[in-house]
Amino acid sequence: MDEDARVADAGDVHEGETLLFTVRDADGELAEAFCTRLSDGTVVAYRNYCQHWTDVRLDKGDGARVTNGEVWCRKHGATFQLDTGVCDFGPCEGSVMESVDVTVADGGMYLNDEEYALEHLGPSGVDGGDGGDSRIDFTGN
Ligand code: FES
User: Fold this and answer.
1) What is the pLDDT of residues 16-52, one digit of tens each?
2) DSSP string, the chain
3) Most ligand 1 atoms within 8 A of CB, residue of 46, 47, 50 to mutate
4) Of 67, 96, 97, 98, which has the fewest Cβ atoms less than 10 A away?
5) What's the CATH number of domain 3-125, 2.102.10.10, 3.90.1720.10, 2.20.28.10, 3.40.50.920?
6) CA of 50, closest atom in ligand 1
């Protein structure tokens, strides 16, 4: 595998939590993604934004909330199945998270998506790290 695409040691990707990393797309724009491990040991990754309000990050840098194989959006409570990416509850029910292709090999987890190049492990630092998630919704949250 290309060591420039090595995101993390595979042993650092755990079930029940997310690991945030930053990629660069073909236009040179930075984007965030998170990876996690499913109960069957499979490692999956998705772009780090909610399908409801796309400026809301699921992992705000301290790990997303993950329970029972689902990642939660802390803004309005949408839940997304981590094995399929499908939102099964919330205002964006039926939508699908944007997957990012990753591969586990040689003890590492590698970005393996021709749309992206690995930038670094951790947040992008764009928008001061809050991802522009400063809107106030109708509930005042
Ligand atoms: S912004 Fe995620 S559920 Fe509304």
Assistant:
1) 999 999 999 999 999 999 999 999 999 999 999 999 9
2) --GGGEEEEGGG--BTS-EEEEEEETTS-EEEEEEEE-TTS-EEEEESS-SSSTTS-SS-SS---EETTEEE-TTT--EEETTT-BEEESTTTT-B--EE-EEEETTEEEE--TTEEEEEES---GGGGTTT-----TT--
3) 50
4) 67
5) 2.102.10.10
6) 2
